[in-house]
Amino acid sequence: MPLRSFRSLFCLALLGSAGLQPASAAPDLASLFAQAWQRQPEAQAAALRHQAAQAERASADSWSPEPAALSLEGKTDRWQRNDGSRELSLGVSLPLWLPGERSRKAALGDAEVDAASERLRATQWNLAASVRQAWWDGQRARSALALAQDNLVSARQLAADVQRRFDAGDMARSELLQAQAALAQAEAVEAQAQGGCRAAAATLAQWSGAVLLPCAGDAVADEALGAEPALATDGVLPLADAHPLLADAQAQASVAQRSAELLAVQRRANPTLNLATTRDRGAADERYQRSVTIGITVPLGAGVRAQARESAALAQALEAQTRSSQERERLHAQAQAAQARAAAAAVQRDALARSAALAQQSRTFVARAFALGEADWPTRLRVEQEAQQAQRQAALARIDAAAAQSDLRQALGLLPE
């Protein structure tokens, strides 16, 4: 399980390295997220962190809980009697596992490997929320610019028509001034939208390292939104255990529980097996003798200090388990709220799309009547403004509906795809 979950963490990084696109290609949300993840410090250090967790787990497979220790001792009477007494001892001390310590150490190592992988997935999920927000803000800015430029073209054409009719004596100067004022307002709105689009492009460049948002006057098509696969909003979507935040909380609770179980058997220091060989003589005219010493050191229990450590570990495990349960409830509530918002946004998108279509039909009819002199100027101006407002609302609702689906996927723990 640890290796499988760890491999999944690098799928997005591999996707990004294989699918980096130039600024003119206008990548979708998934490729933007892959590029943003590649630039994160956590992604670049992920392999080393995994190696560290695996090395900690491998320590439970060793023969000894701690490295062996060598000792070398020499004894002489050269500075006292100098009778030639010599003694040289070489020994090794090998710590031993306590009963049940090795298996619980291995269980803790497995839990820490899983926790490292889940923490990386949770980091990806948090990054996805920021990238999604920047992406949809950019799409709103791009759509606003496209509409502002379209409205500017219409305002210029309308002002030119009014100018011709004023020159022909068919319209009053006050009506000409109103058309020119509407043109100036359209120019101001277009300039503001241009600045907003450039600011959004700069924000996206922060994640990708390149300007990926084209600030052009083309309308934003549905396929250019980079919308993610839609999820059903008419039924209750279950919150899976694979949600990155929930999985991270559960992994942390598992680490705390395994730590408490390990401390339960570590009530004393590890016993030590001692093995030494000695070469000595009593005087200069005696021959060297060899001897071997075998012994074991068994530390006494730590008493109340061990109980304090175990109690603290149990309290931490209980807190982690409670936090995991609360996290599940919180994420479930967020998913339900996101599902409700997505359903409402879809209904609003369809209604405003119909409203915009009707307003455009009315705009075309009144514009034709105005050109023939069958409609007055106040009606022409009012219908023009109503059509522009309906277009803005419909475009924003279309993007908001796609963003609501993206938020729903985020609430359910799904990364951009």
Tell me, what's the shape?
A: elongated
Main β-sheet: number of strands, strand sense, barrel status? 4 strands, antiparallel
Helix content: 55-70%
- Rg (CA only): 37 Å
Helix and strand element order: HHHHHEEHHHEEHH
Strand order of the largest sheet: 1-2-3-4
**Cα distance, first to last residue?**
23 Å
The assigned structural class equals alpha+beta
Ranges with pLDDT <50 over ≥5 residues? 1-25
Number of strands: 4
The portion of residues forming beta strands comes to: 5-15%
Task: Please sum up the structure shown.
The chain has 417 residues and is α+β, with helices and mostly antiparallel strands.
What does this structure look like?
The chain is of the alpha+beta class and 417 residues long. It has ten helices and four strands; from the N terminus they run H-H-H-H-H-E-E-H-H-H-E-E-H-H. The chain has helices at 2-9, 11-19, 29-38, 41-44, 46-58, 101-167, 173-208, 244-265, 304-371, 377-411, and strands spanning 69-76, 86-95, 272-281, 289-297. A four-stranded antiparallel beta sheet has the order 1-2-3-4, with no helix packed on it. Strand 3 (272-281) and strand 4 (289-297) form a beta hairpin.
